[in-house]
Amino acid sequence: MENSYVELQVIPVLRVKADMKGKGPSAAFDLLESRLPSLKGRKFYGTFQFKPDGEEYYACVARIDSDDPGKMQLETGVIPGGWYAHGKLMDWEKNLSKLPSLFEEMARTLDGDPERLSLEFYRSQAELHLFLPVRSHPPIEAA
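Given the sequence above, the corresponding structure tokens read:
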């Protein structure tokens, strides 16, 4: 997988914590989606970070002005901005088992920042974008 570097802005989100010892991320996404009036036009993310007691994962959706977190019974949070190494996984539904090894490879070969969250951005049913937070990156050429 070829990586590039991007700078992301802070993204306010609504989120559901996944039970990593239970049904995991898919159940968290099911619950999150069930609380939204519509999925159309929404941007979905997965955030995760290794903690001393295991992996912490949240199913997230970018907030929009009409969201009412209290009424929707959803937790609020933010995806931190900053520099990330970026890669893509095509046909992600068929290749989901490759996801952990792709992030591990990125972390092993790049200057990853374990203090920040790693991200999955579900661009479409076929395209998943991976973002690994980095402490440093090569110079970015101006376009």
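The longest strand covers residues 54-62. Try to locate this feature in the token string yourself.
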